[in-house]
Amino acid sequence: MKAAIVGAGFGGLSAAALLAKEGFDVEVIEKNEQPGGRASVYSEKGFTFDMGPSWYLMPDVYETFFAAFGKKPEDFYTLKRLDPAYRIFFGDGDPVDIRADLEEDYALFDSFEEDGGEKLRAYLASAKEMYDLSINELLYRDYRSIFDFLNGRLIMQGSRLHIFENLGTFVRRHFESDRAQKIVQYSIGFLGGAPQNTPSFYHIMSHIDMTMGVWYPDGGIRAVAGGIAELARSYGAEISLDEPVRRIEVEGKRATGVVTEKGRHDADLVLVNADYAHAELDLLDAAHRTYPEKYWRSRVLAPSAFVIYLGLDREVPALAHHTLFLDRDWEAGFERIFDPNRAAWPENPSYYVNVPSRTDPTAAPPGSETLFILVPLAPGLEDTPALRERLYTRILDDLEAKIGEELRDAVVVKRIFALNDFAERYNAYRGTALGLSHTLLQTALWRPAHLSRKVGNLYYTGQYTHPGIGVPMTLISSTIVAREIAERHPRG
User: Fold this and answer.
1) Which of these three, 377, 392, 426, is where a domain ends?
2) Is the residue at 197 inside a domain?
3) How far apart are CA 488 and CA 37, in angstroms?
4) Which SS3 state, helix, strand or coil, does residue 23 take?
5) SS3 335
6) Inside any domain, residue 94
7) Does an H or E element contain 89, and which?
């Protein structure tokens, strides 16, 4: 049985491996010149950049995925736990480091407020409880109706889920100081949300990064994508590159194949890992769409991003592997991203700097540094060279001032990637970098479905579907949909 997979992101690659292992004849058809999707790689003058994901979190999910093949992550790449896990510059003081040793983090929170360490200990215990519930009951299950969501165990746990309380309110009940509140909320950006529109359930992110740790795979996230691609190929999956899909062909209520710029690929089923909105609006006729344009216009999109790739001819010791710069008035920053009436290019944004060369000597030439600087942007904004250069200047001014060091005279590689690039390279709806935000009504049952409601053998995986945004979530999404495909299309 032939399975055609549209898109070689983490969702497409992992689904290809799982389906090929089950005996399907799998072909992955990728628009761009390399596998990995948003985890693309950019190299110039000896500098190598992971263009997209840069945090390796939830190592247990990767272990579970590879265990399905009798493998371990270390069969494909070597992991190193980062210490410090990350560094934070606040708007009004010296930086602080979040360490791999929780006792040091408890002491840090004690310096923020009275009994801060005990408060953090209790907060992380709650986050762990929710994480365990998620892994065991929520994340690996598909949701087709409210009855799937409200099973007996979840109803009993309902009061502890705090699903109707937002993260911002939940955090303020636990911590008084601005610094403590920001540290336990910053990671909500990984879910493409803001504290005021994300359910408090997602405080599990603090357990994920502070307790489970922040890791780095030697060679970068690209090594993980390469490992999964290697795994898929080892089971016979084919990966075709530089072949944009132009149409999913449907006869009656069944997909019969995909048409690309190079020809037609017949298929017994089609699995889409490309941008969900793009697939529905651009690759399918209107009669075969589960979600029309009106649906997508009504969604809360996760942010786009303004990304600066810089290669410097010297090292920058003030920066850790992961460094966050959190603005004093970050609530105004969230409004510029999520409030349609105030959406605009930022004035004084919070931003993130990734310096993989602090850990990985292959990321930059000796004595040099590779910087990946990310600023969240509202999706759908106008994107012009003038706006890009203005924000670049603003960010570099701020970064140089906070670390007390000139950087521009050391730049030997510079590239900017923003809204128009996300739309062009990844067919991203309105230039979003991540897909749909994790609001209450865009979680679990209320995310776009894995199975088309109009086409019986058309499936979807990736960050738009349950469980959502992030590389671990896409691996789980593919596990869910591959299991469903194997059950509905059994191999003899």
Assistant:
1) 426
2) yes
3) 27
4) coil
5) helix
6) no
7) strand 86-90
Domain range for 420: 300-426
Domain boundary among 161, 191, 212: 212
Sequence letter at residue 279: A
Check pLDDT > 50 for residue 492: no
Helix (H) or strand (E) holding 459: strand 458-460
Question: 327 with 348: CB under 8 angstroms?
Answer: yes
- Phi and psi (nearest 5°) for 244? -60, 135
Query: Cβ neighbours of residue 386 under 8 Å, at least 6 residues apart?
Result: none
Q: What are the backbone angles phi and psi of residue 381, rounded to the nearest 5°?
A: -75, 160
* DSSP bridge partners of 44: 47
Cross-strand partners of 26: 3
| Token pair listed for 441 | 């009504």
Q: What percent of the chain has pLDDT over 70?
A: 95
Q: Are 407 and 414 in contact (CB under 8 A)?
A: no
464 strand-pairing partners: none
User: What contacts 24+ positions apart, CB below 8 Å, involve 175-180?
Assistant: 175/112, 175/113, 175/116, 175/119, 175/123, 176/113, 177/112, 177/113, 177/116, 178/90, 179/90, 179/96, 179/112, 180/109, 180/112, 180/113, 180/116, 180/119, 180/120
- The model's confidence at residue 152, banded by pLDDT at 50, 70 and 90, is very low
Query: ω into residue 340 within 30 of 0, thus cis?
Result: no
Give the number of residues written for the chain.
492
Kindly report the backbone phi and psi dihedral angles of residue 293, in degrees, each rounded to the nearest multiple of 5, phi listed first.
Answer: -55, -40
CA 422 to chain centre: 14
Number of domains in the chain: 3
Which residues pair with residue 185 across a beta bridge? none
Coil, helix or strand for 382?
coil
Q: What are phi and psi of 379, to 5 degrees?
A: -70, 155
Query: Reading across the β-sheet that carries 263-266, which strands appear in turn?
Result: 245-251, 254-260, 263-266
DSSP state of 83: S
In order, the DSSP letters of 267-280 are -SEEEE-S-HHHII
φ, ψ for residue 295, nearest 5 deg: -60, -50
Q: What type of residue is 461?
A: T
Residue 206 located in a structural domain: yes
* Beta pairing partners, 255: 250
- Whether the predicted pLDDT of 331 surpasses 80: no
Residue type, 362: T
CA atoms within 13 A of residue 296's CA, in its CB half-sphere: 22
| Digit-coded pLDDT (tens) for 273-311 | 999 999 999 999 999 999 999 999 999 999 999 999 999
Question: Which of 324, 310, 432 is closest to 42 using CA atoms?
Answer: 310
pLDDT of 424-482, one tens digit each? 999 999 999 999 998 888 888 889 999 999 999 999 999 999 999 999 999 999 999 99
